[in-house]
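Have a think about this chain, tokens included, and walk me through the fold.
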Amino acid sequence: MSASITVRCDRTGQYGSCPAQLFTSTTDEAEAYAHASRLGWAVNGTPDYCPRHAGTTRPTPAVVPLHLREH
């Protein structure tokens, strides 16, 4: 088993939390946040927001796998 970083949207609302998350294959936090930032995520501090809740115009699916690996 290997470790990796998943960036999750921290937005909460009346009906629960945002399900958006960004899976990466890196164990380096700075690299994971750099990927997220390039995809429109607001990751400049806490909390982190997906593009939809960050107010960016770049739409991305709720779950985005990066660096797919073969098993």
Residues 51 and 57 are 7 Å apart (CA to CA).
